[in-house]
């Protein structure tokens, strides 16, 4: 049976907690790219490499809409979202499964 494609909205902070919000269909690959500095622009400029929040969905358009929604929020609301599931701002990257799929977070 074919595995459903999943889509992820995620948040990465800089050391000063400037927040990057992104969307991808392969969170493990994307985190590897961020850690290697393969993303030009914001992520390389602010050296964001720590995954502190993610959501999982089955629809690309839904994930893109959610990314835009979160990007439109004030900083305080984004921080509250992260802290609602990750109050210590721990790096969630080690929790990603090697099978390249994740449970809903």
Describe the structure in your own words.
This protein is of the alpha+beta class and 105 residues long. It has one domain (7-95): 3-Layer(aba) Sandwich (GIY-YIG endonuclease). The protein is built from 4 helices and 3 strands. The protein has a 3-stranded antiparallel beta sheet, with helices on one face. The radius of gyration is 13 Å and the shape is globular. The protein starts with 6 loop residues before the first strand and ends in a 20-residue tail after the last helix.
Task: Give a concise summary.
The protein has 4 helices and 3 strands.
Notable features of this structure?
disordered C terminus, 105 residues, three-stranded antiparallel β-sheet, 17% strand, single chain, GIY-YIG endonuclease, alpha+beta
**Number of extended strands:** 3
Uncertain stretches: 98-105
Multimeric state of these chains? single chain
Name of the CATH first level: Alpha Beta
According to CATH, the fold-level topology is GIY-YIG endonuclease
Major sheet, described briefly?
Answer: 3 strands, antiparallel
| Order of strands, widest sheet | 2-1-3
Question: How many discrete domains?
Answer: 1
